[in-house]
What does this fold into?
Amino acid sequence: MGYTGYIEMLLKAGKRMEQKACLLIHGFTGGPYELHPLASYLGQKGHRCQSVTLPGHEGDLRALRKVHRTEWIQCVEEAGKELADQHGEFDLIGFSMGGLLAAYAANRLPVRRLVLVNTAVYYVSPGRFVREAVRQFRDGNLRSLSVKQATPLRAVLQFTQLVRELKPEFPQIRIPTLVVQGEQDQIVHPYSANYIYGRLAGKKQLIWYPRSRHMICLDEEAERLFTDIERFLD
It folds into this structure.
């Protein structure tokens, strides 16, 4: 390699180090909009954020009937490899089911730091779910209820199998990891955070948000959440 080529290589390496790349993974039946406020915030702080849209989540949830859980894994792996080719190490943020996929990817890709947001391991009790359904009905917010009704049963089974298959990934994670959990989460039981935190093998941190529900990036403590995540990544 000539002198000019060596200098170009150093400049490219320095540019890759300056750009803090971050991959964000949304949840089951959701989309990048679930993490968009966080991505926007981090983008303003100098992070290059990239979101994935998991197969079957492009709009019409009926498309989930034809999707196998391995397609979600493959989608995240491909996006992570592309980001690694451009930046080397990158940060990874997973929300709900995306947290499971992030755990899987963190054990196989050059992930620098990992953030698990309301990650789906255990679900809420039936009583808590019913109370949430009643609250949404009274408030006239029936969108999430209609989403649940429109979700194909096969997709739900794929999701539950994914949870069972990827839970063993947590004890293998040795990179710095931040676990965040909304205490009012009506989808994922808060015990999930304790389960994950207790099994991580590397440096770890657990932060609770007492007033936040499942869609924590759109909830009242979002600003505090964003600040906590940025502090952890930096």
